[in-house]
# Entry
Amino acid sequence: SECWWDGQFLLNCSFTRISAIPEDTPPTAVTADFSYNNIKTFLCSDGRNEEWMLKHLNLSNNLISELSLTTCTNLPILETLNLSGNAIHTLTLDMPRPGLGSKKSRIVDHLLPALKVLSVERNNLHTIPRGLGLLQSLQTVHMSSNAIQQIDPKDFQNCSELKDIDLRNNKITKIHPDTFRDLNKLQVVVDLRENALAIPLPQILISLNFLQLEVYLSNTAW
# Structure
C-alpha cells in the first residue's frame, strides 16, 4: 500500500485513498492513522488472531456507516479511537452474539478495556450508543454534530470513569434528570451548546452536585 511505516511505532495511511485496512498492517504499531480515505467497513479482528499493540487509532473522515465494537477483542491497550467525520448511524457495543451462550458476557465485559477517549463527532447518530458502560476505562466521549434527540437515564449507565461529555450541536430536546447523577468523576465539562433544549434544566443541574463541573448551555432554546 501507499502507507508510511517508520518500522517501529507509527503507521500513517492518511490520504492514501484506501478502501480497507491493509492486510499487512503491522501488529506492533502503536499509532495508526487511516483518516481521509474511502474505508466503508472496519472489523477489529477481521480474521486476525494476534493482539495489536495499538494505543491510538484514527479512522476519521471515511465512509463508515455501521460499526460494531463487539469484535474488538484484539485491541487490549487501545486508548483513543477517533471515528469522527464518517456517516455512522449505528454504533454497536452490546449486541448479543448468537451461539456463544455464557461466553458472550465474558467477551463483552472486556470490550476495549483500556479505551479512554471515544470520538464520534460529525456522524449520523440519532441516539447515544447503547452500552457505553462496557467501556470500563472511558473518560472522554465526543458526540458533537450528530442528530441525537434525547438523553435517557441509562445512556451513561456504569460509565463510572467518565469525566468529559461533549454533546454540542445535536437536536437534543429532552434530558432525563437522573442522566448524569451517578457519574461521580464527571468534572471537566458537560457541553450541551447548540441544541434544542426545552426542559426544566435546574432539575439536571441540581443532580450535578460536583464542585469542579462546568456546564455549557449557550445557543440553546432554553
